[in-house]
Amino acid sequence: MKSPTITPCFGVKDTQASVDFYEKIGFTALPAGDNPDDDLRILLFEGGFALMVHREDQLREWLPVLKDTPIGAFGMFYLAVSDFDAYVAKIRPLVNVIKETEVDGRRIFYFTTPDGHVIGVNQSQEW
């Protein structure tokens, strides 16, 4: 698997709770390395790399500049799915829906993760 050009790594309160959440909404989790003391996980979506989650205290130790940064993010992340309607129907009861909208004929479904990250789901497209 080829890594993406930019790799999101979310700081989370509880890595296993985050993995459990993402697995419920269709992601697959893999260990990120061989160190059993490093609570970092890789998450795949539809077989491709999506993001990583890392327990907040370990991430703050790894990058001390983040020591006072709250969990969550200002902004949002987008998840392109192969079947928008089926995926949204599947996850709707499992997530905190914050907005549904349409822009230029494309529907977007926004939800938050347990750690406050905002994810917008849209139909995948070719550029």
Automatic annotation (TrEMBL):
Signal peptide: none annotated. Residues 3-124 form the VOC domain. The lineage of its organism: Bacteria, Bacillati, Actinomycetota, Actinomycetes, Kitasatosporales. InterPro entries: Glyas_Bleomycin-R_OHBP_Dase, Glyas_Fos-R_dOase_dom, VOC_core. It comes from the Bacteria. Pfam families: Glyoxalase (PF00903). This is VOC domain-containing protein.
